[in-house]
């Protein structure tokens, strides 16, 4: 079983439930040492290593099965690699969690604008679901 820290589209149940088969407890969490960035031409963000003062707010899903972790690996695709980092839960407990980090060879795709989760919930999520889920059903 794995804890999985999410910081973008997967923080939202509308997306998460389309990717995984299981149902998991979740809590807010903080990842230190990384920055969340927008991606050129996309509505989802990426994270990249940064200074020790940087942090990313997100959601950690607890005790995710290996089969769902495999689904997440496939969903994240070629731009990312997965590694284990320490996150701090809302109860101030430090736990190891799987995170998806942008591969360095794709840093040229980083947008100068910040990723806005509020904009994503109001506008971006509809585009995201259509592009990455509904479009698959039409093929």
Molecular structure report:
It is a single chain. The model has no long low-confidence stretch (mean pLDDT 92). The chain has helices at residues 13-19, 66-76, 117-138; strands spanning 2-6, 26-32, 34-38, 45-49, 55-64, 80-89, 94-102. A hairpin with a 6-residue loop joins β3 (34-38) and β4. It contains 3 helices and 7 strands. It has a 5-stranded antiparallel sheet. The chain has a two-stranded antiparallel ribbon with strand order 3-4. With 139 residues, the chain is α+β, with helices and mostly antiparallel strands. It is globular. The protein has one domain: Gamma-glutamyl cyclotransferase-like (Hypothetical upf0131 protein ytfp, Roll). The longest helix has 22 residues, at 117-138.
The H-level CATH homologous superfamily, spelled out, is: Gamma-glutamyl cyclotransferase-like
State the major sheet: 5 strands, antiparallel
Number of helices: 3
What's the number of domains? 1
Radius of gyration: 14 Å
CATH C-level class: Alpha Beta
SSE ordering: EHEEEEHEEH
* Strand residue percentage: 35-45%
> Fraction of residues in helices?
25-40%
Structural class by SSE content: alpha+beta
Give a brief rundown of this model.
With 139 residues, the chain is α+β, with helices and mostly antiparallel strands. The protein is 29% helix and 37% strand. The radius of gyration is 14 Å and the shape is globular.
């Amino acid at each position: 079983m794995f804890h999985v820290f999410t910081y973008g589209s997967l923080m939202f149940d509308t997306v998460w439930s389309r990717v995984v088969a299981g149902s998991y407890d979740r809590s807010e969490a903080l990842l230190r040492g990384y920055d969340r960035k927008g991606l050129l031409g996309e509505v989802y963000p990426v994270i990249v290593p940064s200074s020790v003062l940087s942090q990313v707010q997100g959601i950690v899903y607890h005790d995710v099965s290996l089969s769902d972790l495999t689904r997440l690996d496939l969903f994240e695709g070629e731009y990312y690699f997965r590694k284990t980092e320490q996150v701090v839960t809302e109860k101030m407990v430090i736990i190891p969690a799987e995170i998806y980090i942008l591969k360095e060879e794709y840093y040229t795709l980083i947008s100068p604008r910040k990723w806005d989760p509020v904009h994503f919930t109001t506008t971006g999520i509809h585009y995201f679901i259509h592009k990455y889920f509904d479009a698959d059903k039409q093929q």
